[in-house]
Amino acid sequence: MDEALLSVKDLDAVFQIDKQNYPVLQKLNFRINKKETVCMVGESGCGKSVTALALMDLLPNNGKVTGGSIRLAGQEIAGLSRRERGSLRGKQMGMVFQEPMTALNPILTVGRQLTEGLRLHRGMDKKAAYECAAKCLDTVGIADPEERMRQFPFQMSGGIRQRIMIAMVLAVEPQLFIADEPTTALDVTIQKQVLVLLNRLKKNMEAGILFITHNLGVVAEIADRVVVLYSGYKVEEGSVNEIFMNPQHPYTRGLFSCVPNVEAKDMVIRPIPGSMPNITEEIPGCRFHPRCTLARECCRNSIPPERPCKAEGHTVSCFAADCG
C-alpha cells in the first residue's frame, strides 16, 4: 500500500482540569490518502474537533498531545516544535472552521486576509497575491471578487463567508484540507453548493480532506471513508458504503436510527439511550457499554480491540459485533 498523505497512529491527547489530566483522545488510528475525503462522525463531545485541533497543533492551553504519531507526507510532525508546526499551518495543512464569522478578523478587509497567507507562505508580492486571491474567490463561486476583496466579513452572508474561508485555505494549496463542520450554519441550498465545491477541489487537487460532521446526509454526499468516534475512541471505520449498508458497532447503528426515514410510514426516531459521558467520568471497559443494549460482562471489564471485518478496510472495536 502506498504511503498515506496523513497517517495517525495511537494518538493520545488530554485536557488538564484542576491540575488533573483527563484523556480526550485514546489510541486513535486513521489515515487519509491523496484525493480522498475521510469523514469523522459522532455526537457532540466525541472528540472530532479535538482531533482536528491536535493535528493543527491548535489545542487550547490546557490541552496537549501525550503520545502517538502524526505523519504528514511521510514526515513525522508530532515531535516538532511549536514554531516548526506553525510553519506547516497554511502551507501544508489548512483548516476551515465551523463558524467563519469568528475565524475571520472583523476589522480587516477580506482582501487583506486572503493576501496575507499568499505573501507569507508562497512569497508573492502584493500585486501577485491580490490577483491570486481574486482568482481563488472566483474559483469558489463568488461573484465580483474585486468588490468582495474590499469588503469586511460582517458585510457578507454566512454562505459567502464560508466560501471565503475555503478560498483562503485553497489559495496556499495545502496538502491536507481539514473542514470542521463547515456546513452546520448554512441553509440546505448553500450547503449543497459548498459540498459540490469541495468535491470539485478534491478532484482537481492532490489534497486529502478530513471532513468533520454529525450530519449523515452530508457524509453520504462527500465521503470516501468514514471514521466513527465515541468518547475519544475510534469505534468503527470503513468505506462510506460499508458504514451505511453494513454498520457493525451498536453506536454506529444508533446514529442511523436517530435519522428520520421519510419513506417509513411511522417515521419513528429511535434515539440512543443515555448521553455522552463527561471526560472526567471513569468508565471501565468499553465507554459505550452503559448505553449499549448488547453489553456483556466482558464489555464492562475490557476495552474491545480493533478487529477487521469481512470487507477490506472495515474495522470495528466491539465484542458483540459480527465481523464475519
Number of helices: 12
Order of helices and strands: EEEHEEHEHHHHHEHEHEEHHHEE
Biggest beta-sheet profile:
8 strands, mixed
Please compute the radius of gyration using only Cα atoms: 21 Å
Q: Mean pLDDT across all residues, rounded? A: 89
Uncertain segments of ≥5 residues (pLDDT<50)? Answer: none
The outline comes out as: globular
Question: What's the arrangement of strands in the largest beta sheet?
Answer: 6-7-8-3-9-10-12-11
Structure classification = alpha/beta
Distance between the termini: 24 Å
Strand content: 15-25%
- Strand tally, please? 12
Helix-residue proportion: 25-40%
Q: Short summary of the structure?
A:
By secondary structure, the protein is α/β, with parallel strands linked by helices.
Key structural traits:
8-stranded mixed β-sheet; 324 residues; single chain; 12 helices; alpha/beta; 33% helix
Can you give a write-up of this model?
The protein has 12 helices and 12 strands. By secondary structure, it is α/β, with parallel strands linked by helices. The strands form 2 sheets. Strands 6-7-8-3-9-10-12-11 form an 8-stranded mixed sheet, with helices on both faces. The radius of gyration is 21 Å and the shape is globular. The chain starts with 5 loop residues before the first strand and ends in an 8-residue tail after the last strand.
